[in-house]
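Quarterly update, task 2.4: heme C-bound model.
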Amino acid sequence: MRYLPALLIFAALPTFAEGLSGEQVYNSTCVECHGTGKDKAPIFGNKKTWGKLVREGLDDLVPAALGGIRKMPAKGGNPSLSDLEVARGVVYLANAGGGKFAEPSEKEAARWRAKADKKKP
Ligand code: HEC
């Protein structure tokens, strides 16, 4: 059993390496529009515009970010992001605008994906 500690470390690694954090997602993709307000994107940290969106809740915001809404492209135009990563990006944006959302789970991301797909024509 002397390999047990090493095994435990390898078992724990994926929890840290599972994709990008909300901040990384934001900086890689969302900042292009949400940093500047390009195409009237709600600007990062603007409590007035985000306050309204925060009240709509993640059940509205994440499916919109996954599937796109008006000039907001699906996944912010970056299809290499996973649904969970996009959800983390939304939480990062929303919390910078006054929200208090917790880190999203895989299960929630799957539910938001189903909602986004339902909206498609
Ligand atoms: C090409 C520009 C662009 C990029 C990149 C972009 N957005 Fe947006 N986003 C917009 C615009 C424009 C809107 C406003 C859409 C509207 O309501 O007309 C918006 C709105 C949103 C909203 C509010 C949706 C709602 O229900 O009103 C969320 C949440 C959002 N973006 C998240 C993200 C996330 C997360 C990323 C990065 C993964 C991202 N956006 C990248 C342009 C962009």
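Highlight for this quarter: The CA atoms of residues 29 and 78 lie 7 Å apart.
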